[in-house]
């Protein structure tokens, strides 16, 4: 896939500290081929660790971390501090031009509370400042966004990073959205599902085959599908994005099965999955 596509890459907290050189080479190849790349990241395990250290309790409600004022401060420090700066420096080491930002900066992720009584300071993105992102990507910068949102009154919110990435992809009318995580894709009885539709996803969630942190990922993926975004990929950050033919690996979430699967060379000039293990 050569040219000027917009590609949103969500790096999950499960993998953000273990991304391999093959992963960074894949990102670099996408930028060098003239694409606009925006990175959105989470950091669930790092948040969990810091909350434990500070002896602050938190619980998950419907897959989202119920967020008190204290939890919000920790989430902000961990995501926009440690995780964001680690990712920025790693990208720099791979000769990219990352700019670390939170969703508060430039009101990148304007956010409103989902249900204050049930979830506290957990928000959903209602508007993305696409202009700032496109200004940066036009100059070959790679914006690296932590999933902290803000409302017009200046209140910060904790946003699930999968949902933040979906909102960014929709706002930018991205052609590609990649969820990079710690598994090869969606697995059923240990087998990788190469393609899934929304109907498949609903059934797999209902049957308990897709659970936990995979739920917001597949839901954000299917909701982000549009006229411009025909496939959303869930892939592992432990290796290259592509196989030996230059085609995407992992699970593709699509409007319907079949179609253009593997018709397109996603990236050329990058090490392939076979060479990276
Ligand atoms: N059907 C499934 N296939 C693969 N992984 C699944 C599935 N259902 C649940 N999971 C879990 O989802 C996890 C990825 O979600 P999560 O830990 O939230 O990742 P991230 O931090 O990358 O967003 C996997 O490590 C796995 O434990
Ligand atoms: C509201 C909510 O649940 N926010 C998440 C934000 C981080 C995140 O989403 O990180 P992952 O990419 O590791 O899932 C949290 O507090 O853990």
| Fold-level CATH name | Carbamate kinase
Strand content: 15-25%
The Rg value, from CA coordinates, equals: 18 Å
Q: Give the strand order of the largest sheet, numbering strands 1, 2, ... along the chain.
A: 5-8-2-1-11-15-16-14
Structural class, from helix and strand content?
Answer: alpha/beta
Average pLDDT number = 93
Topology, number of strands: 16
CATH superfamily: Acetylglutamate kinase-like
Tally of helical segments: 8
- The helix content, as a percent range, equals 25-40%
Give a short summary of the structure.
This protein is of the alpha/beta class.
Topology record:
Blueprint: E1 6-11, H1 21-32, E2 36-41, H2 44-53, E3 60-61, E4 64-65, H3 69-93, E5 98-102, E6 109-113, H4 116-119, E7 123-128, H5 130-138, E8 142-146, E9 148-150, E10 156-158, H6 161-171, E11 176-181, E12 187-188, E13 191-192, E14 195-196, H7 198-206, H8 214-224, E15 231-236, E16 251-254
Parallel strand pairs: 1-2, 1-11, 2-8, 5-8, 11-15, 14-16
Antiparallel strand pairs: 3-4, 6-7, 9-10, 12-13, 15-16
Helix pairs in contact: 2-3, 6-8
The structure holds adenosine-5'-diphosphate (ADP) and N-acetyl-L-glutamyl 5-phosphate.
N-acetyl-L-glutamyl 5-phosphate (X2W) is lined by residues 12-14, 42-44, 47, 64-65, 75, 122, 147, 158, 160-161, 213.
